[in-house]
Specification:
- By secondary structure, this protein is mainly alpha-helical.
- The chain has two domains: 30 residues; 106 residues.
- Helices cover 76% and strands 4% of the residues.
- It contains three helices and two strands.
- The protein has a two-stranded antiparallel sheet with strand order 1-2.
- α2 runs antiparallel to α3.
- The radius of gyration is 26 Å and the shape is flat.
- It starts with a helix and ends in a 10-residue tail after the last strand.
- The model has no long low-confidence stretch (mean pLDDT 83).
Length: 139
């Protein structure tokens, strides 16, 4: 009886430890890879800013030297800039993909004859339907 209850307790403990890991993997699998990368870049950027705040606070309290402060700030600013560039590139890639999809949909509608009369957008010079209230590229 003691062996059974010990085994059950061990299994429950293992499941309690493993469940958050399994749950997070399921969540990531269902999420777009680009969105996960976008979140990672934003998290890296936020972490860099937080480390800069900590370094400034430590420097003002006298916990680190001037050389250490300059080194930490320089590295964190560079890392934040890289994360910001990564995030910007991912957003540009997503925009490009959306434009490609919209162009393909318009092309398919043109082939099927379901696309109405077209006009040129004043902002981006792309083709949109006359009845369209807004250009998808200008959003």
């Amino acid at each position: 009886m003691i062996v059974m209850s010990s085994a059950a307790l061990a299994i429950i403990s293992v499941l309690l430890i493993i469940w958050p890991i399994i749950k997070s993997k399921i969540y990531i699998v269902n999420k777009s890879v680009m969105l996960v990368e976008l979140d990672d870049a934003a998290n890296r950027e936020t972490q860099c800013y937080e480390e800069i705040r900590v370094a400034i606070s430590d420097y003002q309290l006298g916990n680190i030297t001037n050389v250490q402060y300059i080194d930490i700030i320089g590295k964190r600013r560079t890392a934040a800039a890289v994360a910001l560039m990564d995030r910007s590139k991912i957003i540009a890639d997503i925009s490009y993909m959306v434009n490609q999809i919209e162009d393909q949909v318009s092309s398919n509608r043109r082939i099927n004859g379901t696309l109405g009369d077209l006009k040129e957008c004043e902002n981006c010079n792309g083709l949109i339907e006359v009845s369209a209230p807004i250009c998808f590229r200008c959003l």
